Amino acid sequence: MQSYRKFLLLEWRLFTAEPGTWIVLVLMMFSAIGAIVNGVSNVQMQSRFVNDARDDQKQRYTAAAQAIDAEKRKTDETTIPVTSWTPVFAPAAREAVYNFKAVLPPPSLAALGFGQTDLHSQSFRLVNNSDDRPIVPTTGTHVLSNIIPQYKTESTLRLWLGKWDFVFVVTYLYPLFILALSHDLIASDRATGTLALVLAQGISVRSLALTRFLVRMVAVVVAGIAIPTIALTVAHSLVGLPADPGRVVLWILAATGYVFFWLAAALVVNALNWSATRNAVVLVSLWTVVSLLIPVGAGFLVRVVAPMMPNASFTDAERFARNEANEKTTTAYEAMVEAFNRNFPLDINVSSKEKQQRELGRFTDSFQRPAGNEILDTFYSAHPEYPARLTHFQLWYAAQLGRDLFTEKRLSNVLGMWREQQAQHHRLARWLMFFSPSMLVHASLTDIAGTGSHRYRGFLSQLDDYIRKRESWFTGKILKLEPISSSELLTQELFEVKPERTLEAAARVAFPIMSLWIFAVLLLIAGWIRFSAL
Amino acid sequence: MGWATVKTIAAHEWRQLWHGRLFLIAGVIVAAILCLLLGFGCRDFIEYRRAEYAASENQRRLWLERDVANAHAAAHAGITVFRPLPLLGVLDPGLHPYAGTSVFLEAHRRNDLAGSLAESLPDVLRMSLWNVSHVLQIVLPLLLVVLLAPAFAGERQDGTLRLLLSIGVSPRHLLIGKAIGMALPVMAVLMPLIFAAWCGIALISGLDAAMIAIPRLLIFVLSYLLYLAAFSILMFAISARSSSVKAAVASGLTMWIVLCFLVPRLANEVGAKLYPTAVAEEVAASIQSSQKAQEKSGWFDRRKQIEQALIQRYGVASAKDLPVNPMGKLLSEWEERTTSIQNAHYRQIYERQESQHRVLQLSGIFSPTPAIAAVSMALSGSDPQHLRHFSDFADEYRFRMAQMLNDESFHSALGKSRHQLAAEFHAHRREIYERLPPFRYESPSLEWSMKNVFLGWSALVLWTISAVVVAMIAIRHLNAF
């Protein structure tokens, strides 16, 4: 054992005595740390927007509550006019707090990789009265049609080239660094005759190769994983991101598994007894196949086997649905005006005060809703709890909600088809990634970093829930003509993204990481057997 | 002796390549991949164009049949237009998968292109959007590294180089002969593929369009030949200076990784550091605050001024008697102002993107890959400049639509009731809508495309010339041992 330790140390000294080794290891470390620095600058910016958005929403609620209190001070509580446009009037309170910005906060390991954050808007603005705003399939629901992605300005050129992040460095560059370090485990020694000298010392080829494998594994793990992980942790604490040791462990497991895979692949190629040149060519070819050709092939296969509806077709269908809903809503408005006029006829001979009183009646005097109107029918079928007799203003509000529900109903087929196709797309891609360790590690690291589509979809879903819940509360108040107090307004939840538990992410990436390790161990065994046979 | 020697060497190289298994296998694989990608490119093009054409026609119909209360409501209801895929997109879709396919044109607001292909792809397939140009830019140079590494180093290793030099073959003739001998088989594989690409273009878009595309295609081919020539000559130089094939392969691979992967990515980062992309949230806030400031500074005052001017012009007693609607004029001015505010912001955004693109082209000094990528995208009509051209074109159309409808509002008299106006608009709406011609996007000319990538082209030519110079220096003192 002691002699083996000596041998190991000797190999380590030989390995580190090569200037080429240091060049590769330093390059590896710098490319990784450079990528982390790049990622951290993005995190800082995103954190600022999250804080701004939160403060902005809080201010809106506080200002609305203060306005309600001021109104209460002016009038006796019992005589608060809930039917005119005062701060206590539910539609007025709703309008005061309606708009807000929702920003997806950077995840705890955001500096690890940009993932899809440059493709999907990380910040949305919820705006009222966006009757014509297109619903995009990636955001989906009618509720989210009112959220407008903040002007998306990421340069398409940058999207095309991809950013320099840690995930890219690990997935694409680490194998090349490993290849540079391990394509010549014993080939040159054999060619120059030094191998015979070493073997004469009683050391087997297998032990020699495995020792060199081990030396390289230690060097790569230290320079490429341990040091960058320390840099990552320090960088995260500097920008104030919460520590997430669980995700750090997952990242180390995934990255080490990938490094192990490429070193084991190099061991197998070295065991084939070829020249160093041939080893290098074969390993580069393997890298080309695993990192470039299989992902490209998988991409084509996914698009051929599970084709997606063209975006133009979806947009076309959406525009028709939206147009139909808007036209029907206009008809509903006209029917409501007609019904109001029928129920409360206008006498042109009355005084202007009486005319004003009649106009106020739009907020107070209820009448039977006009029958046979598709938009109002849509609203009442979704909300049978509300009475059919409402005021003109309430009916107008109900028609707006009915319009959104109608659009969603009209789009449900095409949106359902789009989602189904996308789900198939994702399922197939998830299955195909097991053919390429590069795809496995890329998907795992992006998911661990929290910058993938999964977290983005979770964010949209939380936003959708939040808006629905808030709208439902206001709708109840508006349709029951209840005033809003400052205290209940302030107890309303502000939008905040609930972070995903590390265990959930771990459950998703466990199988891909395990597969990486299994591939690596199988290759190691193959290399072991092959070297034993030499 | 000169040309005869070159011919003999070239013929020898040609024969060796054809007989060598490596070239045949690699050639067949690359040709198959290129054919497959070309097929996929054509398929994507047909699908995209079919969907885009159908959607454009439907949206035009929707526009013509739209039933809204008045002209301004029609401007808000807007129209959606679609970005066509340029013809050479079958070879190099460039930024197309990352750019949106449609844009909603409405009053007062310039919207971004929405719905890109990349957005709907699973994360893991983000890097899988490959096409013919990727093979030409990345895979072929790798193949050249492997094929050309033994050119001189192999002869040296086998001892045949000593033999050749001893019989008086000049290193220059050896280089030229080997270059011709290598170039011919590569051309023999590539040329039928180029013809197949042209046939594919003719099949999917008709002979007339394919004929128009010929100059672009020829420059496209010439650019790639320059790129591959630069790589080949450099590889010859590396082989000439390498003591063994192993060393030549190692150096060639390092060169390939640096030139094809590292330099473009680093250039991307340098470009973003020098010209940071405008931050979405900041642009939105800036546009909003500019517009709010404008609203405060005199919406109501301006309305009164317009009314007064019109009352004077038409010699009427009050605004109620005017035969025109001052609101139409006000909306028209408002549209002009908001458009100019938004265009100023968009100009900044696009200028930054174009500066990043220039940095990428400039990085062509360090590697021919970003240079060819820029030239290739420009020729296929899918570089940042082309995207900006489409976006500006669509916004001009939006402005035209909004102003046409504002003009319609202006000429609807004020004296009538809301119902009367709505009834009048309803009766004449189709006639009004037809005043806006259908959206037909005209791609910029070849000259325009090439002007934007002058830097890239220059870098490409420079690389080829430099590669020749380096190769000449490398073989001047060709070492036989």
Please specify the SSE layout and strand pairing.
The complex is a heterodimer of chains A (534) and B (481).
Chain A: H1 2-17, H2 19-74, H3 90-98, E1 100-103, E2 123-126, E3 147-149, H4 156-161, H5 166-182, H6 187-192, H7 194-199, H8 205-239, H9 245-271, H10 276-305, H11 311-343, H12 352-364, E4 366-368, H13 374-382, E5 389-391, H14 392-432, H15 437-449, H16 453-479, H17 486-490, H18 502-533
Antiparallel strand pairs in A: 1-2, 2-3, 4-5
Chain B: H1 2-19, H2 21-65, H3 71-77, E1 79-82, E2 102-105, H4 117-120, H5 132-148, H6 150-158, H7 160-166, H8 171-205, H9 207-212, H10 214-241, H11 245-274, H12 280-296, H13 299-314, H14 326-362, H15 368-379, H16 384-410, H17 418-433, H18 446-452, H19 454-476
Antiparallel strand pairs in B: 1-2
Written account of the structure:
The complex is a heterodimer of chains A (534) and B (481). Chain A is mostly helical and 534 residues long. Chain A has helices at 2-17, 19-74, 90-98, 156-161, 166-182, 187-192, 194-199, 205-239, 245-271, 276-305, 311-343, 352-364, 374-382, 392-432, 437-449, 453-479, 486-490, 502-533; strands spanning 100-103, 123-126, 147-149, 366-368, 389-391. In chain A, α13 crosses α14 (392-432). Chain A is elongated, with a radius of gyration of 32 Å. The model of chain A has no long low-confidence stretch (mean pLDDT 86). Chain B is mainly α and 481 residues long. In chain B, 75% of the residues lie in helices and 2% in strands. The radius of gyration of chain B is 30 Å and the shape is elongated. Classes of the chains: A mainly alpha (534), B mainly alpha (481). Chains A and B meet through α2, α4, α5, α10 and α11 of A and α2, α4, α5, α11 and α12 of B.
